[in-house]
Design brief:
Strand content: 15-25%
CATH superfamily of the largest domain: Acetyl-CoA hydrolase/transferase C-terminal domain
Distance between the termini: 79 Å
CATH class of the largest domain: Alpha Beta
Shape: globular
Mean pLDDT: 95
Length: about 450
């Protein structure tokens, strides 16, 4: 049987396709913008008929209809490997649970059976190419491992999916799929980044001052990393490389400005390497058929040893708070789960191992709480329940709009002083007194 015959013989209606799910099954969705809204909507109609179903995804950008169909969790439990804003809101209502992990370890957790069987995978892909291969679009991540271990694979064909140049493991052949569904060809979900504010732009200036020609770049999520990319695009920096977890619109700006050539990378020279992309249509159009970009599974893109083989890695990530010990909290505020560990620690470690590498933790010096009061993000110590994303032993360079604090190989009092120096001026006296009470330093040292 040729692949075309095989392909057309496997088509069913979405309603018929999702009947394969049974009570007690584990169902995995696609990840990020490659979650199928269509299959989710149809599967939601079946949820009340089922019991004890576990649903997994990664950073689903919308509240899954299957979860909303069971607001008392009588039929289905939802787990997310890394929280999106939608997952955060569901978690606040007890409808989503986080799976703590360093991102690059996700595929191995599946290979070693730590997450149990995967009964059904519901994915979205492009139509097949001339050789019968389906493209996973702008998400590789953990999906290739789902494909390998899922007992039954349902694929929604969506002609809007950009064809992203991929490693062999990030492709799926018609023969590997059990059931095909023709989707409504929804355009990919766009995730625009909020425009940077003055604080973001000031932090970006400090970041760009640490970037040199031929550096290899990783940017995290948010307005400030995008501000960095936009500033780099105007900077005149040359021959930059890219080895990142996420690709965002800012990388398009840098590439179109001629800053990125990838010529001097050790790994995958000539290629902009990433494991998922979220942004606007500008980004998806840029990736479609672009042979200068390479999407790969997360256990490749985020492996600290592999990333560190590139010299001058500049790895930039956001944080919520940093305490005077140098502990970095990037995923929870107290007991409230806001985001996830993701690849932050992966890239902090990689930057430390890279020759000339720099790991950067960036945050605004303050935030306004729900009562309208200004609060410092540089804290004497983290509140009980707050999750430490980067332990103090790995804390790299911390940047606020007030400057740069290099934490590497510093004593506890040197760390405290450096962090106080980049805190908001209104809080420096208070933080100095706190440091003394915590026996991090005496008065003479801090002044």
């Amino acid at each position: 049987m040729n692949w075309q015959t095989d392909y057309f013989s496997k088509f069913k209606s979405a309603e018929e396709a999702v009947k394969v799910v049974k009570s007690g099954d584990t169902v995995v969705y696609g990840e990020f913008v490659m979650v199928s809204r269509y299959l989710d909507k149809v599967f939601a109609q079946r949820v009340p008929e089922l019991e004890n179903v576990l649903l997994r995804s990664t950073t689903c950008p919308f509240p899954p209809a299957a979860v909303m169909a069971d607001p008392k969790m009588e039929h289905l439990m939802y787990n997310d490997w890394h929280f999106s804003p939608a997952s955060r809101k569901l978690s606040d209502h007890g409808l989503c649970r986080y799976v703590p992990m360093n991102y690059h370890e996700g595929p191995n957790a599946i290979r070693q059976g730590r997450v149990g069987d995967i009964n059904v995978a519901m994915l979205m892909t492009s139509p097949p190419d001339e050789d019968g291969y389906l493209n996973l679009g702008p998400t590789s991540s953990i999906t290739p491992t789902y494909i390998k271990y899922a007992k039954h694979i349902i694929v929604e064909i969506n002609e809007s999916v950009p064809v992203c140049c991929a490693t062999d493991s990030s492709r799926l052949h018609v023969s590997q799929v059990d059931t095909f569904v023709q989707g409504p060809n929804y355009p990919l979900i766009e995730v625009p980044t909020p425009p940077p504010n003055e604080v973001d732009e000031k932090i970006a200036e400090y970041v760009v001052s640490l970037v040199e020609d031929r550096s290899c770049i990783q940017l995290g999520i948010g307005a400030m990393p995008n501000a960095v990319g936009q500033l780099i695009a105007k900077s005149g920096l040359k021959d930059l490389g890219v080895h990142t977890e996420m690709l965002c619109d800012a990388f398009v700006d840098m590439a179109e400005a001629g800053c990125i050539t990838n010529k001097f990378k050790t790994t995958d020279p000539g290629k902009m390497v990433y494991t998922f992309a979220t942004g606007t249509k500008k980004l998806y159009d840029f990736l479609d058929g672009n042979k200068d970009c390479l999407i790969a599974p997360v256990d490749y893109t985020n492996d600290p040893y592999l990333v560190a083989q590139n010299d001058n890695m500049v790895c930039l990530n956001n944080a919520l708070e940093v305490d005077l010990y140098g502990q970095v909290a990037s995923e929870s505020s107290g007991i409230r789960q806001i985001s996830g560990t993701g690849g932050q620690l992966d890239f902090v470690i990689a930057a430390e191992r890279s020759k000339g590498g720099k790991g950067l933790i960036c945050l605004s010096s303050t935030y306004t709480d729900k009562d309208g009061n200004l609060q410092s993000r540089i804290r004497p110590y983290l509140d009980p329940g707050t999750i430490v994303t980067v332990p103090r032993s790995y804390c790299p360079i911390v940047i606020t709009e007030y400057g740069i604090a290099d934490m590497r190989a510093k004593t506890t009092w040197e760390r405290a002083k450096a962090l106080i120096d980049i805190a908001h001026p209104d809080f420096r006296e208070e933080l100095t007194k706190a440091a003394m009470k915590l026996h991090l330093a005496d008065f003479r040292v801090l002044l």
